[in-house]
Amino acid sequence: MALTQITGTGIGSVDSLTPTTIQLGGSGSANALADYEEGTWTPTWGVASGSITANSNSSGRYTKIGRMVYIQGYISYQSNSSASGVVTVQGLPFTSVSSGFGQSNNQAGGVSSYVTALWSSDSPDSGRILANTTYISPYVNDDTGSTAVEFADFGTGGNHSQFVFFGHYFV
Prior knowledge:
By secondary structure, the protein is an all-beta fold. It is 0% helix and 51% strand. It has strands at residues 4-7, 13-16, 36-41, 44-54, 59-65, 68-75, 77-90, 107-114, 126-130, 135-142, 145-148, 163-170. The strands form two sheets. Strands 3, 4, 5, 6, 7, 8, 9, 10, 11 and 12 form a ten-stranded antiparallel β-sheet that branches. The protein has a two-stranded antiparallel ribbon with strand order 1-2. A hairpin with a 4-residue loop joins strand 9 and strand 10 (135-142). It is elongated.
């Protein structure tokens, strides 16, 4: 969608707007809308050893406004080849910022999850996006603390181990 600006009174004249001329919340350069983008991406499973194939219905959407990327997605287990170890959701549309918020693990963002199918143990309810990465690390939070999801947590029947998520991160 193109943006136009009408100047003058009555009919006026039409000028094109560039992203740096659109300012939100003030007139300073820090308020300039310098980047806006929407699109789709395809999440894939990553695993420490072996491989995991995602269901063909796996999909994601994103909106990037300036340095913030808002994401949502769905990924489901299809099959594996000798998979083991910690699991990630790969393929974020942009690499996260090179340094996080100052925590010891250098996080650049995170996700919340709504899981719709069975896992062999607790299902992931959150995810972390570390600095300078293009993946989500799903986590289970329970009475014992926060634990990274491993392939051993997967339920491997039909359409099991679905991860439905939404979140944001800095680039």
